[in-house]
Design brief:
The chain is an alpha/beta fold. It is built from 10 helices and 7 strands. The strands form 2 sheets. A 5-stranded parallel sheet has the order 3-2-1-4-5. The chain has a two-stranded antiparallel sheet with strand order 6-7. α4 packs across α7 (192-206) and α5 runs parallel beside α8 (220-230). 32% of the residues are buried.
């Protein structure tokens, strides 16, 4: 077996993500193993993206809470939270941390009963859905939520402009467009009012009460300069550049400003977006 295949095998690149912790001494070996992989997959954008989500989970019921993440990929929230997470996606290629239990399914039809999870998380996923299908995805997210739902999404013309500029740099340096940004531009980013109206419609259909609050996440200038710094044709170089930013994360996190929305618990329902 080649060195590359040995590395991929260790990282779980070709295996399905699954939570499997042993007891006793084996437990600590597993955790140590997961932490090595966590370091390898650490990225500044993921760390900033999930920082407020972790804050909300820890504030409103960290211990014993069940968590579902829509559009998790192979890592998702578990890159920042050492806790079992059920992840929904169509593809789980990439490093496997072990805390994520993957389930291949469409966000438009989640294979879970209503009110199945204390927290349902969706970060930077909804903008990849065609506009005509977004309300149904929101319906599924809120239907499966028992207590809280957290939905982070880039909004406004300013975000579209940032995507355009980043994609332009990516194309110049790599010779190809970045698929994530081209999907943003193809589907169009929603604005706050559109998302608010859709969520209110869904909650009325579900007969749930709610409160809405706006919080900060990723500042567009920080977002742009992060991508400008680490974009490279060579994936290894991109990985190393991300690791170079690790010591500066607390400072960047402190200075970061931006917009995202979430709704606070009211009676039996909580919606974050």
């Amino acid at each position: 077996m080649s060195k590359v295949n040995l590395l991929k095998n260790y990282l779980g690149w070709t295996k399905a993500p699954i939570v499997k912790l042993e007891s006793g001494f084996r437990y600590y070996l597993k955790v140590f193993d997961y932490e090595i992989k966590r370091f390898l997959c650490w990225r500044l954008d993921l760390a900033i993206r999930y920082a407020p989500v972790c804050r909300i989970i820890k504030r409103y019921g960290y211990s014993g809470s069940s968590i579902l993440e829509i559009g998790s990929g192979s890592v998702g929230l578990t890159s920042s939270l050492r806790k079992k997470v059920i992840g929904i996606d169509l593809n789980f290629d990439g490093i496997k941390l072990g805390y994520l239990q993957g389930c291949k399914a469409s966000a438009e039809k989640l294979p879970f009963p209503s009110r199945s999870f204390d927290f349902v998380i969706s970060m930077d996923m909804l903008e990849h859905i065609a506009p005509e299908n977004r309300e149904e995805v929101l319906y599924e997210i809120l239907r499966c939520s028992r207590r809280y739902a957290v939905i982070g999404i880039p909004c406004s013309i300013s975000s579209e402009r940032a995507d355009y500029l980043i994609n332009k740099v990516y194309l110049k340096r790599t010779g190809r467009e970045y698929s994530g940004f081209t999907e943003h531009m193809k589907n169009g980013l929603p604005n706050h009012k559109e998302i608010t109206d859709m969520i209110i419609n869904v909650l009325m259909r579900l007969n749930r009460s709610y409160r809405i609050k706006i919080e900060n996440n990723f500042n567009l200038k920080t977002w742009y300069y992060y991508w400008y710094f680490h974009i490279s044709r060579n994936q290894i170089i991109m990985l190393l550049k991300n690791k170079m930013l690790l010591p500066f994360y607390p400072i960047i996190k402190y200075l970061n400003f931006g917009n995202w929305i979430y709704a606070k618990k009211h009676k039996n329902t909580h919606v974050d977006y």
